Amino acid sequence: MKISFIIPWISQGRGGTENVGHLMANAMAEKGHQVKVYTFDSEERPSRWPLNESISLHYLPENDDKVANSQMAIALAEPCPDLLVGLHMNRTLLRYARVAQKLDVPLVLSEHIDPHFPRRLGVFEEEERHSAFSVATVVHLLSNVFVDTVPEYLRGKIHVIPNTVKPAIGQCDPVGGACKNLITIARLVPRKNMLRLIDEFSLIAAKYTDWKLQILGDGPQLSDLKRRAQAKGISHQVEFLGHCDDPYRFLKEAQIFVFPSLFEGFPMSSLEAMAHGLPLVGYAACNGINEQILDGVNGRLAARSLETGCLSACLDELMSDSALRIQMGAQSQQRYEELYSNQIVFDAWETMFIAASESIFPENSMITSVKPPLTRA
Fold first, then answer.
1. DSSP-based three-state secondary structure for 235
2. Dihedrals φ, ψ of 339, to 5°?
3. How many folded domains does the chain comprise?
4. Cα 136–140–143 angle (5° rounding)?
5. Are residues 151 and 242 in the same domain?
6. Which of 31, 98, 131, 164 has the fewest Cβ atoms within 10 Å of its own Cβ atom?
7. Domain housing 154
8. Beta strands 238-242 and 211-216: pairing type?
9. What sign for the dihedral angle of Cα 87, 91, 92, 98?
């Protein structure tokens, strides 16, 4: 099968969408499919993610206008693909839908965010999302909880498959030594809730002078976070590690992973922590996290996201009990292997792609004026 993947910023970004995209493309190439990757980059920079040697990288114009979309259609038509796969989380999905209509090629739209978040910000209206989905042959969502955000008349297209991450090379030691690490990995932007994490850690930091909070990542909120740690009197226990393309070396040295975000699709950094055998702590309100963590089994879920001290209480429980960390860490690693390992997810992706390529492309579905049926299926 000839599959063309559109991975928006694989030559510019290190985000989760690009990570999943390169894993999808490489997995399908290794399974014997003919794979091409397309990305939006007028400067034609090399991929920031490793691609299988059989995969060629092609560049699309970054502008979203009539001329750019025509150029995009021509570029994607050239190899005569059996299937288009478009990854993203906003209006870019509409660009994929328009091109697929022009080429009359089956299309998988793969959404990589909690759909409630762009709706809350007003950056991707529901009508636009539903219009794109109406043209798709298959819609890939990351979690069953997102199915309810899709109208019933479109739900027959949905395939729910979680993310995966590369396996850990070695396992962590949840007990730790003289200095222990509580680690988080995220882009330092407000929606990742890092200011709240520093506040929560400050409530128990004095009790655990042998622990450090490690924040791996970079972003515009870095200065604010440093000031908050200083104001809370815990700057000596908060370590800002900056951006790193290889977080696995830090995860291997950590004892607990914490993820304070409230809006996610299916976060990959927490999956990476699970692969290393780390116990996890997060908020029960965060979709994705509340599937990866079974409260009391492989970590703790803070039940009340607005209550000060709720997250720190969960951290306190694990930081004070090395035996519990060992037990929950082992369950994390087992849960990764049983539900989110490469083999399980790669096989599910291939099954989805084959199903899409063998489907009849929806006819007479105009993405500019889609209307739901009067009676729902």
1. helix
2. -120, -30
3. 2
4. 145
5. no
6. 31
7. 2-164+344-357
8. parallel
9. positive
